[in-house]
Amino acid sequence: MTARVAVLVSGGGTNLQAILDASARGEMPSAKVALVVSSNPEAFALERARRAGVETAVCPRAGRTQAEFEAGLESVLRAHEIDLIVLAGFMTILSAAFVSKYPERILNVHPSLIPSFCGAGFYGLRVHRAALDYGVKVTGATVHFVNEIPDGGRIIAQKAVDVLEGDTPESLQRRVMEQAEWVLLPRAVEKVASEMGGTSI
Ligand code: GAR
Fold it and tell me: Is the whole model's pTM more than 0.90, yes or no?
């Protein structure tokens, strides 16, 4: 069985691109990116999806309650018969009620070695700024299942990345993406998809 994957995005979508590229290279035989959903209508990730011929949907977060937002998201996921959800730079925390409907069917990539620099308030460049402020010499990325605790679900894969003298949040973010996130995420999606064995959400 090929798992039908929805990638949820909010911004640039370089992790989405890594998944699309790995898929095009034949490295994800158990998974098909069937849908890209953005919480932000302006996200460049939507353009990346269109260029790859993947269907897109926008579920705006702004101006809606969490319940309204999640009802819209759930209906688009069901309409596309999605088996597996990947949060790739998706900047909205999903409620416990929502994630409990998809146990071990939602993956997230986080730009640190969990349990460091994670949880509510740690996203994007803030994570790398916190790592530099703390003075750690090694950071990295984590792919994990999503449960009701922000960044608290079971870890699937991690990769360490050196912090270098003179790093800025931007230079560290780039290195963590290149050396860890873009490598780990497609592999983790393939691993989970290959182990799913026909169960649908
Ligand atoms: C990535 O570094 C991702 O790990 C991070 O946002 C960036 C999105 O980049 N996600 C979080 O911080 C979630 N807590 P992208 O849109 O280019 O993939």
Answer: yes
